[in-house]
Amino acid sequence: MKTELLHSNSCKSLLNMNLVREPSTSSLFTAEELRHMEASSRKSSDGSTTEIVQASSSTSGSSNSVASTWLQQWCKSTFRKKTLRKRLPILDWSRDYSWQKFAADCIAGLTVGLTILPQGLAYASLAGLPPQYGLYSGFIGSFIYVLFGATKAVTIGPTAILSIITLAYTAGKPKEYAVLLCFLSGVVTFLTGVFQLGFIVNFISQPVLSGFTTVAAITICSTQVKSLLGLHFPADGVVSVVQGVYNHVDEISENDAILSIICILTLLTLRRLQDIFSCCVKKDSWIDKLLWFISTSRSCIVIGACTVFFSLTHDESLRVSVMGEITPGLPSFQIPPFLQVVNMTLESDNDVFADSMDNTTVLHHQHHLWEYLKTDSSPLLVIPLLALMEHVTAAKALAGTKPVDASQEMISIGLTNMVGSFFSSIPVTGSFSRSMVNAASGAESPLGGLLTGSMIILSLQYLVPYLYFVPNSSLAAVIVCAVISNIDFKIAYQLWFSKKMDLIPWAVTFCVSLLIGLEYGILSGFLISVVFLLYYAARPRVRINSAETSHGCKFILVELDRSLVFPCVEYTRYVIMKSGNVWAKNDLPVVVDCQFIQFADFTAAKGVCDLFSVFNSKGQMLILWKAKPSIIRILSQVMDSEKTPYQFCTTEAELETLIDAKLHTSATKAGHVDLSPFRMTLPPIIESINKDKSDNVVTIDLP
């Protein structure tokens, strides 16, 4: 079989055709041979590059500094056509854009616009802010993602999870603080994308994500209970809401409760409208498409119908709690409140959801916005992390077989939040529900966001005065129906029967998020996921086998299943030393199978050097078998500097030669051995190992 190396991510590689020898020759290398091969490999692989660099240096002259050379190389790599298309995806998808795609994007943009209008109002209220802030946050992301968005169907705007997290950090604080968090979280997200750190989201496991989203959905639903029932009492959590409802059950507004039930039933019915008529409507017919459009625009239909009804009804017996005055017009362009000192208004009952009609005592205090970050800087980590998590989840669900560039998506989110903060936006990210609507509408590119953003701007300019009579209970019903599907307890059943250990991060995230706070829940889940990864990295699985050569010489074979890096060095040393003491009886040779070791660091090399020192001191043979040349180079450099004798071998024949030579008192030298004509055949070893697995194979997992 002939193979050809197409690409390698390693900085330096010893895999070169010069290392390939004839089968009859030995593949056991000394340290001097390895250094010689490495030098020849670098010379052969980098020769042409060296000539180019030397030619460039000779033409530019000695006056060019290292900084200018680095700047030229950076500009050359950054402003390549491939890099520009990657950072500005519009340059890529616009090349084959057509009028048919434009028509599809217009339909999708109109549909998403009808969806985001009621959701924006609802999510701003969920964040404890005036309703217009939800619309302020909806149009900037639609415009920016057209230029920087890499997934055609993703739409950026306010979401339920980010809104409830914003409420957790801004409750009782001035609304300008939410704008400041929008800018700062955008900076953190943007820099994370620039430095290619999008992989961070991979450290949040599915159990952690499920536990967090479940509690977030429960918390969001609980915050809307007061609006659904027309109640007004102080509450800031699930437990306090339940207690408040129980204590104020006699104050429930019948009109608000009835309207909430009607709106929820209507929304759930419209959501399944196509399924209801699937038996009598032909699929993909114009009637089916009309039913789909009605189902997709259900939130706008319900809010619009309720608003029109109560604006025309003046019967006091049908009175419900309405949204009230909303500031009309577009947001003014202003710098985010970096150094602004604001008057903070505190209500005597500390009710962050209090109705404007309540008679409360108001206290005014002056606070510097930066003081809040000095007290608690966790939003600079939690908000970008959740924004990336939501956005990448939506992008992966809609990208199909196309890979998702998480770093590019982070750049687009960061720019949206930074620019949006100049227009009084709250933190935003990719919306999973609206992105699914966009994809189902037939979006062919992010260009539909232009129409969505334009609809929001027109609504702010001309439609806001007519939103006075929007019932709070109908907005609450829209929020509840949007997030209730995120409640998932089925995963606990699946984890119990698949891997019970994964129940720990799910349960911890769920309990901490529910009892302490969502921001602490996601951080605890993130930390538990990292701890689990570190534990697995520090505790590799090791198999201890009893084997013998074709001449009957017994030895202990230690199999390692992963690379040697500093977290697992101590554990690996302990296992190998125990193998030499317990199973090898401080006499039999110990062979370490290194075929699965792809990487080793300096700490690992020092640990291996210490192992050879211990084994050499008691006269017991330790052999590293099937180690790759790159691994041998790292280990041999350390052991040569420490002047520690060591032994490597690559083939089965060399391994048998070393073991038989030891038992027949043949002369050996550190780092090199004179090969005898003996050869070890593999079948006897396999038969010996598999002869009685219960006696000869030991698998250990030590704490």
Tell me about the biggest sheet? 6 strands, mixed
What is the CA-atom radius of gyration, in angstroms? 33 Å
Number of helices: 31
Uncertain segments are 1-34, 41-63, 346-363, 666-703
Estimate what percentage of residues fall within beta strands. Answer: 5-15%
- Number of DSSP E strands: 12
SSE layout:
Layout lengths: L30 H30 L5 H13 L2 H7 L2 H4 L5 H28 L5 H5 L2 H10 L7 E2 L2 H11 L5 H19 L11 H18 L1 H5 L8 H10 L6 H18 L1 H4 L9 H11 L1 H15 L28 E7 L14 E7 H7 L3 H21 L6 H15 L8 E2 L1 H9 L7 H16 L8 H12 L6 H9 L4 H13 L2 H21 L3 E7 L5 E7 L8 H15 L6 E4 L8 H16 L4 E4 L3 H13 L6 E2 L2 H12 L4 E2 L2 E2 L8 H9 L2 H4 E4 L3
Parallel strand pairs: 6-7, 7-8, 8-9
Antiparallel strand pairs: 1-4, 2-3, 5-6, 5-12, 10-11
Helix pairs in contact: 5-16, 5-20, 5-21, 5-22, 7-19, 7-21, 8-18, 9-18, 9-19, 10-22, 10-24, 10-25, 13-22, 18-19, 18-20, 24-25, 26-27, 27-28
Please characterize this protein's 3D structure:
Residues 102-509 form the SLC26A/SulP transporter domain. Residues 56-65 have a biased composition (Low complexity). Its main location: membrane. It is a multi-pass membrane protein. This protein has 703 residues and is of the alpha/beta class. It is built from 31 helices and twelve strands. Helix 26 links the parallel strand 6 and strand 7 (590-593). Helix 5 runs antiparallel to helix 20 (432-440), helix 10 (206-223) packs antiparallel against helix 22 (472-483) and helix 13 crosses helix 22 (472-483). The longest helix has 30 residues, at 31-60. It starts with 30 loop residues before the first helix and ends with a strand. The model is unreliable at 1-34, 41-63, 346-363 and 666-703 (pLDDT under 50).
